[in-house]
Write a structure and sequence with these properties.
Layout lengths: L3 H10 L4 H7 L4 H9 L6 H11 L3 H8 L2
Length: about 70
């Protein structure tokens, strides 16, 4: 399950919209929302793309995506 509040905080801090992050991950908005809700897991590639776009540390990635 993704810590949505932490992810949203990082998105706001880095001026990144939900649409932009979905595009960076190369997935549709509906797929992105399914991942946020926990219905589907983010792939490692998608997590890496989020990490790069939001300039996240490895520790922060663990906090957000591996709660």
């Amino acid at each position: 399950m993704v810590d949505y509040k932490a992810l949203r905080y990082e998105m706001l801090a880095h001026n990144c919209t939900t649409e932009e992050l979905a595009k960076v991950c190369n997935i549709s908005m509906s797929s992105f929302y399914r991942r946020i809700k926990g219905d589907v897991s983010f792939t490692l590639g998608e997590i890496y793309q989020c990490k790069a776009r939001l300039d996240l540390s490895t520790a922060r990635v663990v906090q957000i995506f591996f709660v």
